[in-house]
Structure formats: C-alpha cells, structure tokens
Design goal:
- Helix content is about 55%, strand content about 10%.
- By secondary structure, it is of the alpha/beta class.
Length: about 500
C-alpha cells in the first residue's frame, strides 16, 4: 500500500512558488465559506513515520488558513482527568465547532497504534479498536463534519537519510531525539501497523491520503491541493443535502408523518403490559426509603466503586416523577460524588457539534455518578415525534446510541436507564394539580401540553426505542409511576442492584 509513496516524487521550487499562492488564496476563500455557513467542521488528522515532515506540515496547515479559526491538538499522553474516563472522551471534547478547523496529531489513532506497536495489544484487539474508530468517524461525518486524514511516508533508506541530514545541521539537530532513532530501528513493525490501520480505516466517509514526505515542496503542495479538493467537495455536498432536506420538510408538512407500524404478533407491547396499579402504602414507603437509600450510600463508599463510574439516564412522560426520583437518589449520596445534568433544548454551542457531544462532555470519572434528567434518547423521542430531523437521521441514531453505551460499558462505566410511565389520566390530574400550586406552576409549560396531545406518537417512539436500545450491557427499566412512592423505591432498588451486579 505504501509503495506509491516510496518512488521519489519531487517538485521544483519554481513550480511550488507558482502553485502555492493560488492554493492559499483558495483555502482562505473556502474557510470564509465554512465560517459564514456554520454547517461544517473540518477535522484534519496528521500522522506518519519519523522524519516524514508531519510536524512541519501540521504547522503549514495552520498557516494556510486564518489561524483564529484553527486549533491544533498535539499528541500528548492523557492527563489525570482524561485517564479516568473512556479514551474517546478527550477527543469528543476537542471536536471543533461548525465553521472551525481542528488539526489532530494522530488524534484518536494514537492509542490503538501506539499500543500495537508497543505490543501492548494483540491483533484482534487492535482491529476491534479500529472498527470503533470507523463507527465514530462515520457518525461525525453524518452529523456534517469533514474528516481529512494524512499519512506521511518515507522508505527506510529515505528516513535514515533524512534523520542524518537533520542531525548534521546544527540548526535542526535538536529535532532528532533518541526516541526518533529507536523508532527508526522499528521501521518495519511501524510500517506494518500503519499499513493495516490505513487499509482498515480508509473509508468513503473518512479516507486516508498517503503522501510521500521526502521532498518538502511536493509534500506541501499535495496537502494543500487535497484540502482544496476535499473542502470544496464537502461544501457542495452540504448544499445538495440542504436542498434535499428542504424537499423532505415540505413533504412532511404536506403529509403528516406517521410512525411506521411496529412488528408485533399481538396487541400487547412493553407499555401496555405494565401494571400501573402497583403502589406502596405510606408505612411501606417510610420503611423502604431509608433502607434502599442506606444501601446506596454504603455502596457508593465501597472501594470497588473507586474504579467505576455510574451513568444514570432518566426518561419518561411529563409529570411522571423523574425529578422526585432523582432527589431520592441524590439524598443518599455525598454531594462531592455525583452530579445532576438537566437536558433541555440544545444551546447554540451544542448545536454546533454532533448531538452526542453534549453528553460525552458530562461523562463521569471513576468513582463518580452522573444523573441525566432527560438524555441522548431525545434524538429518537422528541426530535423524532416533532419532525426536528429526518427519518434517516433518527433511525441511524439507534445504532449510534448503542455504540456510545457499549463504549462506556467496555471502559468500566455502569449504565442504568429508567423510563417512568404514567397513564394519560394520571398525567392530566398532575398537570392540573401543579397549576393550582404557585411554586409548582413553573413545571407546566406549553411544551407539556403539546407533548400530551402527541401521546400516541410518543408511545410508538418509546416502544421502538425500548426494542432497539435495551441490551444486556445497558438494559431499560420501565418504572410504573402511577404511584410516586412505588416508582421512587423501584428506582432506588434497581440502581442498587444494578451497581452491585456490576461490581461482582
């Protein structure tokens, strides 16, 4: 695969001087379009063998654009905060907003490639991590990003010659380290690992561009031309997609969206099968509440919990009692060990990133718990029901959410998901009761009445959500919430039992 980057390509200085000003002008024009449109972020990944010019080219990329809208992310070992979370957490946080450009030294490839070269992972584990990266890149691209990946290559002889030349020049000798020479000795292994990485992760969504790095003029022109071509293509594709979305939106307005029928063999589903008559007496509740809160408090202080984080997602119908259930959980915990994240309509900053970005940034470190009051499932609930995105987008979200949760669990987090259910009659009673109490009126909004009118659509969305995203790693717990006392105890008991099972 790398043979085509070992043939000695070069470019004269005169040809470089003629071509580069034109390319720089065009890149500034394209960057201006990116900023004005605010619809596409550009992720540039830079990697390569030692001596191939990767660092110089990353610096060049910063100069080709207006640096105020470019951020270079160095390849540094994870700090203490990053090491306590899943590996991809740091990269999700570093994603540029729409209209901006991020330049990543190796980026999300650094860990898998470094571990494989250092023989800290076997080939099966390496391939599995590459497959996860492909899914991450595909999702980010589906959300509107452009990913351009450069691998700078040298033949073994060219690499040694390059290092010797740099070391012989007093002005550049500092750039050659013992680690560089050590990597040069491992050239064949590094080449094989890199070749497998490029082959397995070069996709239509995020291709690799292998560039010969021996001649500086050739390398820089090749990079600039590629960036012009790829950004131009991305802008044109965004225009086509926007026109398509407008057509779909008009069709949705003319023909009201109806959720497709679910594949069932009878009239019973996960919602209708619930027994909403379940309740607890005041005496039973008074006895059960301190018992389960005490078990949760004790569990949160166990030594094993220091190595695990907990993510709790609360979903449910309006007025189902999510807030009350969350309060009963938080009462049992040290305030330093948990955080409650309320999810409302996305802010401008959140809309400028892929939708999972707003949730990744709140993923807890080891030993801590985060409770989401509403969660990433809004993608397949409210956004689906209210036609805030296309059917293609909410349908692909099921797989993206499953991948997201799987990644969290595989990296040591415990996920517990609750959906609280009340009947339409009980919901209406609670709405009216809230309207009568001054300090509770803020809980009733026009959105609540709007959602109530669309209850059948929400029911269909909830049923499909449960079917597609309840897994062994992250199962859903449906909570019969007609009785607030019963619901609170079920939430506490399920949370305790889920954490205990994960710690065994």
């Amino acid at each position: 695969m790398f043979e085509s980057a070992e043939i000695g390509n070069s470019l004269s200085r005169s040809a470089y001087d003629r071509e580069m000003p034109r390319l720089r002008t065009r890149l500034i024009e394209l960057q201006t379009q990116l900023i004005e449109r605010h619809r596409t972020e550009v992720l540039i990944v830079v990697g390569g063998v030692v001596g191939s010019g990767r660092s110089e080219t990353a610096h060049l990329i910063g100069e080709l654009f207006d640096p105020r809208h470019v951020e270079v992310v160095p390849d540094l070992p994870p700090n203490d905060e990053e090491a306590c979370r899943p590996p991809m957490w740091r990269y999700w946080r570093q994603l540029p907003a729409k209209g901006r450009i991020g330049v990543f030294f190796y980026g999300w490839y650094a860990g898998p490639v470094g571990d494989r070269i250092g023989k800290r992972s076997d080939i099966a584990h390496f391939d599995a991590r590459l497959e996860g990266i492909k899914r991450f890149e595909e999702m980010v691209v589906e959300e509107g990003a452009l990913i351009v990946k450069f691998w700078f290559h040298l033949s073994r002889k060219a690499q040694r010659r390059r290092l010797e030349e740099l070391e012989a020049d007093p002005e550049t000798a500092w750039r050659v380290t013992k680690e560089d020479w050590a990597q040069a000795k491992s050239y064949r292994r590094i080449r094989n690992v890199a070749e497998r990485m490029v082959r397995e992760t070069s996709t239509g969504a995020a291709p690799w561009f292998v560039i010969e790095g021996e001649d500086k003029n050739y390398r820089e022109i090749a990079v600039a031309r590629t960036l012009v071509d790829e950004i131009s293509r991305a802008i044109a594709a965004q225009d086509d997609a926007r026109a398509h979305q407008r057509r779909r939106r008009r069709e949705a307005q003319e023909h009201r969206f109806t959720p497709p029928p679910l594949a069932t063999l009878g009239s019973t589903d996960v919602l209708s099968a619930l027994d909403l008559t379940q309740t607890l007496s005041a005496a039973e509740y008074k006895e059960a509440l301190p018992y389960w809160q005490g078990r949760l408090a004790k569990l949160s202080r166990e030594k094993k919990m220091r190595r695990r984080g907990v993510v709790v997602a609360f979903e449910g119908y309006d007025a189902a009692g999510k807030g009350g259930a969350i309060r009963r959980v938080s009462e049992a915990l040290d305030t330093r060990c948990y955080r409650i994240v309320p999810i409302a309509a996305p802010t401008d900053e959140e809309r400028a990133h892929p939708y999972l970005w707003r949730f990744w940034r709140h993923i807890p470190s080891r030993g801590r718990m985060v409770m989401f009051d509403r969660s990433w499932y809004g993608r397949v609930l409210v956004e689906r029901v209210d036609n805030l995105l296309s059917e293609v987008d909410w349908r692909r979200a099921y797989a993206e959410i499953n991948e997201f949760e799987q990644e969290l669990v595989e990296n040591g987090l415990i996920i517990v998901k609750f959906f609280l259910v009340v009947s339409p009659e009980e919901q209406l009673r609670r709405f009216r009761a809230r309207e009568k109490v001054p300090f509770k009126r803020y809980k009733i909004t026009p959105d609540d009445w709007h959602n109530r009118e669309k209850r059948p659509d929400y029911d269909a969305a909830v049923i499909e959500m449960i079917q597609r995203t309840s897994s062994e790693l992250a199962p859903w717990t449906l909570v019969e919430a007609e009785s607030k006392q019963f619901a609170r105890i079920k939430v506490l008991r399920t949370l305790v039992e889920s954490i205990e099972a994960a710690l065994r």
